[in-house]
Amino acid sequence: xxxxxxxxxxxxxxxxxxxxxxxxxxxxxxxxxxxxxxxxxxxxxxxxxxxxxxxxxxxxxxxxxxxxxxxxxxxxxxxxxxxxxxxxxxxxxxxxxxxxxxxxxxxxxxxxxxxxxxxxxxxxxxxxxxxxxxxxxxxxxxxxxxxxxxxxxxxxxxxxxxxxxxxxxxxxxxxxxxxxxxxxxxxxxxxxxxxxxxxxxxxxxxxxxxxxxxxxxxxxxxxxxxxxxxxxxxxxxxxxxxxxxxxxxxxxxxxxxxxxxxxxxxxxxxxxxxxxxxxxxxxxxxxxxxxxxxxxxxxxxxxxxxxxxxxxxxxxxxxxxxxxxxxxxxxxxxxxxxxxxxxxxxxxxxxxxxxxxxxxxxxxxxxxxxxxxxxxxxxxxxxxxxxxxxxxxxxxxxxxxxxxxxxxxxxxxxxxxxxxxxxxxxxxxxxxxxxxxxxxxxxxxxxxxxxxxxxxxxxxxxxxxxxxxxxxxxxxxxxxxxxxxxxxxxxxxxxxxxxxxxxxxxxxxxxxxxxxxxxxxxxxxxxxxxxxxxxxxxxxxxxxxxxxxxxxxxxxxxxxxxxxxxxxxxxxxxxxxxxxxxxxxxxxxxxxxxxxxxxxxxxxxxxxxxxxxxxxxxxxxxxxxxxxxxxxxxxxxxxxxxxxxxxxxxxxxxxxxxxxxxxxxxxxxxxxxxxxxxxxxxxxxxxxxxxxxxxxxxxxxxxxxxxxxxxxxxxxxxxxxxxxx
Length: 725
Ligand code: CDP
Ligand code: MG
What we know:
By secondary structure, this protein is α/β, with parallel strands linked by helices. Helices cover 39% and strands 15% of the residues. The structure holds cytidine-5'-diphosphate and magnesium ion. One of its GO terms (molecular function) is ATP binding.
């Protein structure tokens, strides 16, 4: 069994500064902390029985931290099997008593904001009420949008079942399967956007319900602008904006002070637990915690939040494996994954009732936070991370609003417990308050590409819920023109249309498109994936600095950092994607696993943008040229006074961690600039100035790439690593 990276075990000091440092280290993976070991002696015997040689995770109850009394919630539930008819279940949902009131409000107002706790029946019931009320007469349709495809499919299937006949006679369908007779359409927000292309006034819809509005996805935000416009000249169109959180005032203001309809929630108390110390490997910690809950806690199902398919599959495998080893020593544990690409029959399984005597553990992406409600969940396990799909590959810490939503999932049917795999300190000091809307997180270039692909040209006057600054919008337009995504009239080009299909930064998409010309898409995909998990590839434990640095230098290849990333990934793939290999080479296994995940997703998109799979067979010049084709906008040259960016003449420095730090090549490109003490270029690649004319003749003139003092260039300019500290 490969040893978990265990380097330092520290006594708990309890000092906040100390805890902050540990949390930072665990999060960044800079050091690996051995979890739970120090308290092995004080564990109750039953923990040890189950987990045998495994270590345990220690949690502290939040109320103990605050010195509060324990809450006295209702007694734990017996898992009474719901044998009632489907109609009785419908009548039992919190939204049901408000059916008439809600329909009256919809009749009275063109735009209505609906706020209600997750699981109250907004998504599945309200469109049915509208159908029953006759909103689909005369061939009109009702649209209900979801940010995630899985959620749209799942609720469509559920509603079809509730309305009887499997959806066929009535036509409640999800996307592609819709026919003429379809009256209720559950779709992703992106699909409704595309509807605008064929039907700009949405004439065949009587009601549009933008659901899960609180998620503020890019698509949802753009829908708001478009729908607000349509609603003005179609007074009979009803617009519903449904949200799970309390922040509905924003939506109301945007829609000219539309009224807010509140569905009172019901929620049982949830007891919160935090880990005493940060966890270095949250996946491992999850698996151990699930088993701990299973063995020590009364009946009730468990919900675990992870970030993506790869991770979920790994966790499920580990859980099943350990259950098998424990055999009859533990009760039956049903392990059920849910993520976007899971086949729908497998997805349906998470909703099936748990057999008596067994326990179910659902390992889910963020979809289970508000989009899907699974009955019977009493325990929530929250490692504190998410991947804000679909337009980002970045994994980040969740925020307080999300953490509270997740905890709330444990209190739907009875009093529950939420185990957070982070410390109370981290919750209080590290997490942000709420989600930053995607439109503010993503590159504005992507927003522009999306709007242009929807035929919206006047971006300056588009009604954004959160308008981007004018200057930033102009810069994005200029950059897209330089990248060849827009023509001189500001219209989308063929390559711009393809770039709009890729959920990555425009420069990165341009690089991927260029890999077709240079026949190196295999390598470029790897580089793109590695750049997406940026800056957390190598780790450097304090007591093994020399070893770690040596390991890193061993990956260096002439040409620069992008090739180093490629080299790391290739060697890791050759090792069979081994965790042991990562451990030995001071490479973060978790980051590599993510890179693999991203790479697979990107590979799946290649066909759509008409790029075939090909390899450069070691001819790295081709890889470097393809990268240059995407990043010619980010170039710098060495002058007498150090590096200057080519166009803006800004003074910049190579990051001390770069493989080119000592080399100081004359021409280079960088992935990004980070401002710390200085403007540092991170992930740099050596290029030749002639390549710039080859990949971007419209952008560079031969004259500006001439090197006036090419002969007299001093050998080395810039400070050494030590001088920079
Ligand atoms: O949208 P909201 O969160 O308000 O609630 P909903 O998704 O309409 O869920 C109402 C009920 O339907 C919950 O009790 C869910 O468990 C159930 N449901 C289900 O059984 N299967 C689905 N695919 C979706 C919802
Ligand atoms: Mg919903």
